[in-house]
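User: structure tokens for this one?
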Amino acid sequence: MKVVAFNGSPRREGNTARLLAEVCGALEKEGIETETVQVGGRAIRGCTACLQCKENRDGRCVLDDDIVNDCIEKMAAADGILIGSPTYYADITPETKALIDRAGFVCGASGGLL
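Assistant:
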């Protein structure tokens, strides 16, 4: 069993990273493999609503110049997904929002990949 965790905080050693590490540590004690991916602070474009993922249905976003497609592959291969983000002005970080929007749309357009 494997769980992938996404840290949406630009602070790599901040509170979000600490909380994800705590959860991942507990999972590892139960024999569950974990991997943490740093999302915050990286250039991740938002969804442009081009609908190419719906047309292609290949589990990939046509915006292939950031880590989103790698993240989608990790999500699809995992048994569980954790997404952590600090709250800035009553919302998640822009990188986290972009990941959720694009991965969600691609996976939905690909027949419910997740």
